Amino acid sequence: MKIILKHEVSGLGTAGDVVDVKDGYARNYLVPRGFAIRWTKGGEKDVAQIRRARKIHEIATIEQANEIKAQLEGTKVRLAVRSGDAGRLFGSVTPADIAAAIKAAGGPEVDKRRVELGSSIKTLGSHQVSVRLHAEVVAKLGVEIVAA
C-alpha cells in the first residue's frame, strides 16, 4: 500500500515521503496514529504542503545541528516528578516531559519526536537521553530526575 508520511518514522522515512509498506502496517499502525495518510492522486498537493511545513521545522545543515548539540549538551536538565518511598515514579517520564524540561532549563526548543529514550525512565536519579537533531548528529543529554 502506498502512503504519504506526515511525521518522521524511524527506518521508513521523513514527513512528505511517499513510501510503499505492507497493508496491515499502514492500516493498523501508521494511519490510526496519524503518522501517515493513504496515497491518492489528489494527495500530491498534500505532499507539497507537508514538505513545506517540514522545511520550516527541520534543522537544515549539519553545522546548525552541531550548534544546537553544543547548547543541549551544556544544559543542565532537572525534572521534578512524583515518586514513591523507594524512588520509583508514579508512571514514567515521556519524551514530551523531557522536551518541556529542556525548554524550561533555558535550552533550545526540541521536538518531542526527536527525543529517544533507551528504556523507559521509572526511577529517580541521572539518566542518559539521546536527541536526534539531524540524520548524522545525535546529542547525548544527562537528565536528572528528582522527587517533587
TrEMBL record:
InterPro entries from the UniProt entry: Ribosomal_bL9, Ribosomal_bL9/RNase_H1_N, Ribosomal_bL9_bac/chp, Ribosomal_bL9_C, Ribosomal_bL9_C_sf, Ribosomal_bL9_N, Ribosomal_bL9_N_sf
Stretches assigned to the Ribosomal protein L9 domain: 13-40
Question: Any keyword RNA-binding?
Answer: yes
Taken from the UniProt entry, a GO cellular component term is:
ribosome
Keyword rRNA-binding present in the record's keywords: the answer is: yes
SUPFAM superfamilies given in the database record: L9 N-domain-like, Ribosomal protein L9 C-domain
User: What keywords sit in the KW lines?
Assistant: Ribonucleoprotein, Ribosomal protein, RNA-binding, rRNA-binding
Q: Which Pfam families match?
A: Ribosomal_L9_C, Ribosomal_L9_N
Q: Which family does it belong to?
A: Belongs to the bacterial ribosomal protein bL9 family.
| Job description of the protein | Binds to the 23S rRNA.
Query: What is the protein named?
Result: Large ribosomal subunit protein bL9
From which organism does this entry originate?
Streptomyces gobitricini
